[in-house]
Design goal:
alpha+beta; nine-stranded mixed sheet; eight-stranded antiparallel sheet; disordered N terminus; transmembrane helix
Length: about 525
């Protein structure tokens, strides 16, 4: 028992002795410090004895041992411990234990306050503890532990941070191998510029990590459960077009709201490749936004919180019943422009819808500036996007205002903003032809970037009338030019197909439309037809 206890704590004693010798060379001071070291080891062996005998003596009454501080009734434990000490001393001192015992208050300070307060241990108390540990007396304890001092102890590793002596903590220790016995000397860590720089950059890195971690936590995506109570809708409209709309949102149920934005479905066109959307932002969790829409069509409104798009609403600004709206616009690199929708001119002459080239402003500044005409009809057509057939007779000759490749394009949108876009061009310009059906893009609007599909049959003579036909049936579609199949394929939609609400024709220049027909691909029923 004694050898096991001593081996468990002699490392601390050896280190402390070496440290104190180097720090306090005076003999008298060293003897006082050495005395403290042995008193500390006396306490450690005392506590170790109590822990070793815990299962047999104390566990039944005080439960399994975790630490002395965890004892629920320290006073009861001290009383029981005093009784045990008295029994042991009575047996070893021939019945003279009562003359040797110390008080319960001393035992409390010795176990629970040692190291935090000055606890004086008189010679009589030292003798009692030594006898309880199995030694003859305090001198015997010192002698036997001093004998261990004279042995060569080979130490390969010491955990300074877990040392029982505060004097050893936060010190660097090195062995003095030229001494006959293993001793240690305290060496203070060196401070250097490199350590300072390393620490400085480590602190910066930690700060950056904390910042981005906090930013991610604040701006992490909202869950579907969190978005359940969010409201976003158009609550009031006034007028046909221009139409004033009141857009309502309520995000008061969301946590971590820092910024609320509403994308209004309109924007500023700079050129064919650059469009800037218009947003309105607010710090309010509940608000109503006002917006005016000057042209018929379907507008995608997006609610954003902390930069995340959380809700989308498609708002339809309807045309006057069965009335086509026409206007001109330009995607000039220096500036963009659009004409007002005429309330007095419908651009229909002799059964042909034709935008008057004289209505175009003279804004041509370079080879990339084009004037374009748009004819739109926005209404409930009564046919779904996936069972749609659109037919029209079109032309766009140069002598009637056609420009560039004389592009003629059909666009159609349903209430979920599923889009159909077919652009027919002049022969020799098919690199600029376009084809999009739902979420399937076969050729998009970037110069010469759509050669992944063959759209050679999208090049025709625009000086003559041409019949363009687009048909969707389930997940398939067909494009016909003058009753000749120009392309066939399969398509997907991002959102489910729903009712067609917007049909429009775009021309590079003025353009002419002779007649339009919309029908159900499954039944063949005509849902809209006009010959102007």
């Amino acid at each position: 028992m004694q050898n096991q206890v001593c081996k468990g704590f002699n490392f601390v004693k050896d280190f402390a002795k070496g440290i104190f010798i180097s720090l306090f060379p005076a003999t008298h001071s060293f003897m006082l410090l050495k005395d403290k070291i042995y008193l500390h080891e006396l306490r450690e062996q005392f506590l170790l004895k109590v822990v070793d005998e815990w299962p047999s003596k104390w566990q039944k009454e005080f439960d399994e041992f975790s630490s002395f501080e965890a004892l629920k009734s320290k006073n009861a434990f001290l009383e029981a411990l005093l009784v045990d000490i008295e029994v042991v001393l009575h047996r070893q001192l021939n019945g003279e234990a009562k003359n040797e015992l110390f008080s319960k208050d001393f035992l409390r300070r010795f176990i629970f306050e040692y190291g935090t307060k000055e606890v004086r241990i008189q010679t009589r108390s030292r003798n009692v503890i030594a006898v309880y540990l199995g030694y003859a007396n305090w001198d015997d304890f010192q002698q036997k532990n001093n004998d261990l001092d004279r042995q060569n102890i080979h130490i390969n590793y010491v955990n300074i941070e877990e040392s029982l002596l505060p004097a050893l903590r936060k010190m660097q220790v090195i062995p003095l191998l030229d001494e006959p016995y293993t001793t240690f000397q305290a060496v203070k860590p060196r401070s250097s510029v490199s350590r300072f720089v390393f620490g400085f950059f480590w602190l910066i890195a930690l700060s950056v990590l904390c910042y981005f971690s906090f930013d991610w936590w604040q701006n992490r995506p909202f869950s579907s459960q969190e978005l359940k109570e969010v409201e976003f809708k158009v609550i009031k409209t006034v007028g046909q077009y221009p139409q004033a709309a009141r857009i309502f949102y309520d995000v008061s149920s969301l946590p971590r709201v820092q910024k609320v934005e509403v994308e209004l479905g309109v924007g500023q066109v700079f050129n064919a490749q650059k469009v800037k959307a218009f947003f309105t932002d607010s710090e309010k969790l509940i608000d109503t936004v006002a917006q005016t829409y000057f042209y018929p069509g379907i507008y995608r409104l997006v609610l954003k919180v902390n930069g995340q798009a959380i809700k989308t609403h498609h708002h339809v600004v309807y045309s006057k019943p069965s009335t086509w709206s026409s206007w001109g616009y330009g995607l000039a690199y220096e500036k963009a422009w659009a004409t007002n929708i005429s309330t007095t001119k419908d651009y229909i002459d002799n059964g042909v819808l034709h935008f008057d080239p004289q209505a175009f402003p003279n804004e041509i500044k370079g080879e990339f500036d084009y004037r374009q005409a748009l004819h739109a009809l926005t209404q409930d057509f009564g046919v779904s996007f996936d069972s749609l057939t659109i037919e029209a007779r079109l032309k766009n000759p140069e002598n009637e205002g056609g420009e560039s490749c004389y592009d003629m394009e059909i666009n159609a949108f349903d209430k979920n903003f599923n889009a159909l876009a077919v652009k027919i061009v002049q022969e020799g310009c098919t690199d600029f032809a376009q084809l999009t059906v739902g979420a399937s893009v076969f050729r998009r609007q970037t110069p010469h970037a759509g050669k992944n599909v063959d759209l050679d049959r999208f090049g025709i003579n625009h000086n003559e009338w041409n019949v363009l036909k687009i048909k969707t049936l389930g997940s398939e579609f067909w494009v016909f030019v003058n009753d000749r199949e120009a392309y066939q394929g399969h398509f997907k939609t991002k959102d489910p197909s729903t009712e067609l609400v917007d049909l429009r024709f775009l021309f590079k220049g003025a353009g002419s439309i002779d007649w339009v027909k919309v029908s159900n691909s499954y039944t063949g029923k005509v849902v809209y037809q006009t010959d102007f």
